[in-house]
Amino acid sequence: MESPQRSAGRGRPRTITRERIADVSVEIGLANLTVVGVAAALGVSHMALYKHVASLEALKTLAAEEIFQRWQIPKAGECGDGEGLQAYLSAFAGSVAAFVKAHPGVTPYVIRRLAATAPMIDKIIAHQQHIAEAYGLSLERARWVLATVAFHAFAAADTVYSVAAREPLPGVDSPEQLAEMEAELDQGLQALVVGVLTVVDHDQVNTQRRGPLHEPV
User: Going from the N-terminus, what domains does the chain have, and what CATH number goes with each?
Assistant: First the structure.
């Protein structure tokens, strides 16, 4: 005689942690993120998830912070021996573009200061300090250079990839069109870097002419 089978129990409730929420949110992506979707991926109810994130916007902010923290921002010297500031900034701008392409919807959380979280701002400041030390810039100069390149690189890349994600026009080869837009984006980023460095060089020359006793107002 067969022994009666035990009925399957409910088991231990799944633990909801910030790390698990972040991992699932990053996997889903900001563009498709919903509370219900994250809850389903975690195997919990959306009401249970609301105990850990107050709203969809809070969930998106958490995801954006995690995405940004995982971004491997290029470090000085990674382009090769004898790398100058121009080569570094070109690599940095290219990294920004690749970051935007990989994570649709992240741009507003990076270029809007009020949307950036404290850990995101800390990472930005640490990057500015690293570049200032590596290239002999003042912290204020490094901040301006990196912020200018980053802002315009994020904005340009976001525009290009937002357009690329839309339905193509009839008869347009989407992969070829994207490649063409990316080539133009790269040219624009290179021009941006040259322009930023021209301003830096011009300011340095003017500072030398004024002399150390004549600080700008």
Answer: 18-68 (no CATH), 73-210 (1.10.357)
Q: Give the separation between CA 56 and CA 157, rounded to whole angstroms.
A: 25
> So what's the pLDDT on residue 18?
92
DSSP-based helix, strand, coil % in the chain, nearest 5: 70, 0, 30
CA 143 to chain centroid, in Å, comes to 17
Count of CB atoms situated within 10 Å of the CB of 96: 26
Give residue-wise pLDDT tens across range 126-135: 999 999 999 9
CB 156 within 8 A of CB 199: no
DSSP conformation letters of 133-149? HHHT--HHHHHHHHHHH
Q: Please tell me the distance from the alpha carbon of residue 91 to that of residue 115, in angstroms, as a whole number.
A: 25
Q: How far apart are CA 9 and CA 104, in angstroms?
A: 41
Q: Establish how many alpha carbons lie within 13 A of residue 197's alpha carbon, considering only the half-sphere containing its beta carbon.
A: 14
User: How many beta carbons lie within 10 A of that of residue 40, not counting itself?
Assistant: 15
Residue 191 CA from chain centroid, whole number: 21
The predicted structure's pLDDT at residue 164: 75
pTM across the whole model: 0.82
pLDDT score for 10: 52
Q: Is-contact 39 49, C-beta < 8 A?
A: yes
Question: For the chain, what is the radius of gyration of the CA atoms?
Answer: 23
